[in-house]
């Protein structure tokens, strides 16, 4: 069982290209709030992104926003049960059933389903449909992802639904990714 969260700051470095993420996670209104800045370059294109995610105490996303340093922005709200709407309150039925989000360019969003699901090695693989947001355009889409617990509270396998990508993710006592093979590495505090 993961420990209850207190305020914490972590950093990851990007292993492909150059990049760094600085993330602070804080207990907030009975749940958690994550604020982060990600800078880097991928494919020779530099980027700077900041994001905020609010989850309830059971790790259901209530809202998130992501914004480039140039001002491009996306902000969505959820009822925590897989129904989404934009900031104007307009329903986004194309994302019905997406409980979790996956923001490109950060290992943090793997923590959300890992903490929310409470998987054990005896659990079946969880097959999820994520609301995925790429950082190169902020055009969200549905993405099938699978999570399997290999070692309780220590090691989880992430696999793309189409099996095009898989990674075993070691996590710390808070469920935060320590190493994302080939993509991210956590820096020592």
TrEMBL record:
<protein>
    <submittedName>
        <fullName>Transcriptional regulator</fullName>
    </submittedName>
</protein>
<dbReference type="InterPro" id="IPR009467">
    <property type="entry name" value="Glycolipid-bd_prot_put"/>
</dbReference>
<dbReference type="Pfam" id="PF06475">
    <property type="entry name" value="Glycolipid_bind"/>
</dbReference>
